[in-house]
Amino acid sequence: MLILMTIGTPDFTGAPRMAFDIARALVAAGHRLIVVTGRRPVDGRASVIDKLRGIGIEAVEEDGFDRQIPDRGLIRRISELVVRERVQLLLSEVQLDVKIMVFVAQKTKVPLVYHALNHVMFHNRSFMVRALKKYLYGRLLRKRVAKVICCSESVRIQHIREFRIPESRAVTIDNGIDLSRFKPIDQAERDRIRSDFGISNDQLMLLNVGRITHQKGQDLLLRSLIQADLAGRDYRLVLIGARAPDSDEDAEYEQKLHRLADAPELKGKCIFAGWRNDVPSVLHSADAYFHSANWEGLPLAVLEAMAAGLPTVWTDCAGTLSGFAPGVHGYIARTGDQPGFTSLIEELLSLTESQRREMGRAAVELVRTTFDVEILGRRFVEQVQQAATPIGAM
Questions:
Q1: Triad 324, 234, 345: Cα angle to 5°
Q2: CA 192, CA 172: separation in Å to the nearest integer?
Q3: Does the first or last residue of the chain, that is N or C, have fewer Cβ atoms within 10 Å of its Cβ?
Q4: Contact, 45 vs 279, CB < 8 A?
Q5: Residue 391 DSSP class
Q6: CB-based burial of residue 49 (10 Å sphere; 0-12 exposed, 13-18 middle, 19+ buried)?
Q7: Is the pTM of the predicted complex or chain greater than 0.85?
C-alpha cells in the first residue's frame, strides 16, 4: 500500500520523532511511503527530514503548513501528488497539518488517518473564536477522518467527549520510544558532559527537556524549586530546549523564566542549554528528571528519562502511564499544583543515591515492557491497514 504521511513541523522533537518511528514501522511492514513536510528548522536543529531520507523514504518539503487559514495552494499540490502517485491512504501526524489533510481527503476521496499526539487546546483572547475553532476541528474530523489514533487514553477521551468522535473511530496506541537510543554511557562520557555544563560529581544534576513555551510549564518547576526545602543539597538545573523563533508569546515566556532563574534561591543554579542532539547521553549524565507540563498527549520526554534510568517527577496532564506506580517508578503530581510538585521534588531528592538508582531501574523495566516503539509500531500498522477502506464503505 502506498501511504502519504504529513509532518507539518519537521524538527526532531516529540511529535516528529514519533512520526519517524511510525514511518519506520510502516516501511518494515512492506508499505511504500511518501512524506510531505513543512520547511526544515532555520536554526540548524536536527530535522526529521534528514532522518527519513537517511532510511530511504522520500521527503518533500512544502510551504504553507504554518498558516492560520488552510493554504489552498498546499491543499491543491498535495492533492495532485496523491492522484498522480495513486496514494491509497493519508496519514496526518501533527495537529498543524490535519487542517490541510481533511481537505485533501475531501478532494481525493482517499481515507485519512489522524495521529492525535496531544491534547487539543485552542488559543485566542476571544471566547467566540476559541469556540468556533473547537467546533470546526470536531466537525472536520467527524466528516473527513476515517480513524483517530490517539497517543494516550486521555487524548482519546477528549476527542470522544469534546469533539464527538465516534468511539468506533477513536483508538488508543500509547506513544513509545526507540530503546536502542538509550544504551548506557561510560563514566568518562558522563564526566565530560557534566563538565560541559560546569557541574561537578558532588553536585546533583537535575534535568528538564522541552520547548520553552507555556505548554511545557517550566515556570512551575522553577517556582517549585524556589520554594523547596532541599536541606542544603547543592544542585544545578539544566533546561534543554528553546522557544519558537517567530513566537512573541514564547519570547515573553522565556523572559519570565529568566526572571525566575534570577531569584536569590535559584541564582547561578539554572542552565539554559538550548537544543542539543545528544539528549540520551545528557539523560544518562543526570541524577533526576522533572517535567511540569500543563498539557501533553503522552510525554515522550518522561519516557526517555525513565529509559535512561532516571527517577522522575512529572504532572498528570496526560493522565498516568500504563503500569506506573507512584513511589516505585517515579512520582506524579496534579497539573498546576505547585505545592504538590514542590513536595515531590523534596521527596525525590531526599532519597539516597541507592534508592534513586533502584527507582530508575524500575522505570527502565516499565518502559522496556510497555512502551517499546517496536511493539507499539506494529499495533499502529494494524490500525492503519484496517482504515484503508474508503469512508463511504465503512
A1: 25
A2: 41
A3: C
A4: no
A5: G
A6: buried
A7: yes
Same domain, 361 and 331: yes
Q: Is residue 307 predicted with pLDDT exceeding 60?
A: yes
pLDDT in tens, 311-339: 999 999 888 899 999 999 999 999 999 99
Cα torsion 46, 316, 309, 239 to 10°: value is 50
Within this chain, do residues 194 and 153 fall inside the same structural domain, yes or no? no
Residue 138 shares a structural domain with residue 200: no
Same domain, 189 and 307: yes
Query: Domain of 361: which CATH number?
Result: 3.40.50.2000
| Residue 198 backbone zone (phi > 0: left; psi -120 to 50: alpha; other: beta) | left
H or E segment to which residue 206 belongs: strand 204-209
In degrees and rounded to multiples of 5, residue 4 shows phi and psi of -105, 120
130 and 219 together in one domain: no
Is residue 48 pLDDT above 50, yes or no? yes
Residues 266 and 225 sit within 8 Å (Cβ to Cβ): yes
Same domain, 241 and 164: no
Q: Which domain holds residue 205?
A: 179-370
Predicted confidence at residue 389, as pLDDT, reads: 63
Q: How many domains does the chain have?
A: 2
Three-state DSSP at 382 gives: helix
Tell me 350's DSSP state: T
CA dist 68 and 71 (Å) reads 8
Do 378 and 365 lie in one domain? The reply is no
Residue with cell 522553577: 222
Residue identified by cell 519516557 is 303
One domain, residues 164 and 200: no
Residue that has been written with the C-alpha cell 513511589 in this structure: 327
CB 289 within 8 A of CB 207: yes
- Distance separating alpha carbons of residues 147 and 170, to the nearest angstrom: 6
